[in-house]
Predict the 3D structure of the following.
Amino acid sequence: MSSKIYVLDGALLECNQGFTPAKLLVTQNQKVKIQGKFKATDMDVQVPATFGQCKLKPTSGGYLPCIPGLQKWSKTSKKSTLGSSKKWLFDDSECMCATGGKVTITDPTQLNLAGSVQEEFMDIAMTIPGAMMGNDKAPKVVQTYWMDESQTKRTNKIEYGQQATIFVRTQNVDAGETIKVNVKEKDGNKIDGSKNTITFSGTVNGDGTAQLEALQTDKDWNKK
């Protein structure tokens, strides 16, 4: 089973020849859902809102509007599904526009459920009425990720002197509740030179997300 993240309806796309992000509309799969959204396939090429203007169409008065012409996606699931003709998209899938731009996925919209086994079960559970996991109403954290200092993109590392902020997505947690996340340093290192674990906390918003305290590293904690 794949450990990659699937792309769902409403995924955010970026074209290197466009000016604005656009959302993918899933039309080629109306059967299989994850987390309540249809999974995208390599045949899904509709971007109703477009990428704004097209850098490949300059005029004396500026750039002409984008008219998306997405081609079939690559870097998809290896096995065909849905009638042996379509393949699932992953977060690193990409495609070309007929005009010449390269389209990539910046937000697949699938929550990272921490493990392909759980994710595959969720995939199945969504299609079976009364499946155990589909009825699970317990409060839980379904995704955690770090944002860089400007909070414009996700990151998995920061330089000394920079800040990073941890975000979480929750399910079945009431807005206004305080949530805490324990973070451990890898390879037995100490987070601040003395602690194995540091706790971050924040308040859950109405959409189930929470922004926790920012972390700043002014020096190498483990350097002697």
Observations:
- The CA atoms of residues 165 and 214 lie 4 Å apart.
- The longest helix spans residues 116-125.
- The chain has two domains: 12-111, 140-216.
